[in-house]
Amino acid sequence: MTKERRPIWTKSFINVSLTHFMVFVAFYTLLTTLPIYVINHLGGTEAEGGLLVTFMLLAAIIMRPFSGKILEKVGKKKGLIWSIVLFTVTMFFYIWIDDFIPLLILRFFHGLSFGVLTTATGTIAADIVPDERRGEGLGYFAMSMNIAVVIGPFIGLTLLQVVSFQMLFTLLSIIMIGGVICSLLVHVPQSSEKEIAIRGKKFSIHDLFELRAFPIAAISGLVGIAYSSVLSYISVYAGSIGLSAVASYFFVVFAVVMIASRPYLGQLFDLKGAKYVILPCLLIFAIGLVTLSFTDSTWMLLLSAGIIGLGCGSLLPSFQTMAIQSAPRHRSGHATATFFTFYDSGIAIGSYVLGLIIAFYSFQTLYIICATLLLVVFGLFILQQSFVKKTKIAEQTE
Description:
Growth Hormone, Chain: A; 2 domains; 15 helices; 0% strand; globular
């Protein structure tokens, strides 16, 4: 008799995914439009516009290690609600701020709530999804962020053609109220809330990080560096080769291919194992970056978008799943926080360091270097899997 497959698309899973989606729509809309706001309305420079992005990411990275502990102390449901309420209240302040320094401070505080909030949504999604379908379920969950990458900038840049920045900020605040409502409808399994490790009051690194998630989180950080070359510089690169008009379609093709491939790759992860998804995806991602480096036409840009979407789209949820699986269930919040600390750091570091490579060399060199980095990650992942296998064999023989 075959075991009945438990459903993924429950009421709670849909609502936590919608919450995650709305948060990232707001995040990516601001990511795209705030530099324009600073330059055109506050009289700032391009560097100051970029600093707004860095400040929010920096705050989120600082907050990540504490997020797991916060969720453990107050509970995952309360942590979700309090963080999204704070995120939403902060959103309203954009409407009235019209000076750069207060805006910079606001971005930092927004990043603090963002760090806890996105850790909470990721942790709760992992707890809601059936264990035997976790790879598939977290793959669907990650799609909410990937789709927001397309919709957020589209909403922002389109609306600014007809409305003011204040009206845009008001709309984003209303969207986040919808996110608050969705978060209230999320039910967190009681077993997940109660499985709290009993420890003394002595503070240790375990209160901030899940050490068992370190290896796979560090590997994901390197992938984050490679991904930042696309996330941060694709529009600039497209402009440098005369394809600015097509740049907006890059992430559309990326998202379509990612969505089409995600169900199959998520199921493959659960049925066959992580290496059967991650190793091919790393190679495909690398091929996509090499194709991007040689791009000189519209069809090549969109082809590279499809290849990168196929390769990169399933890496984030696969690595996140592995990080969570490396730890006990009651440490899922710490494992998620550890994973995103490394992944966000990779994107932040990559956005800066890769900019230096562009300044001294070229975009072509940048994408070849990032493709080479993915081949290094390919080797590191094989070593990590080999070490895990040997460790399990040693434990079984004891």
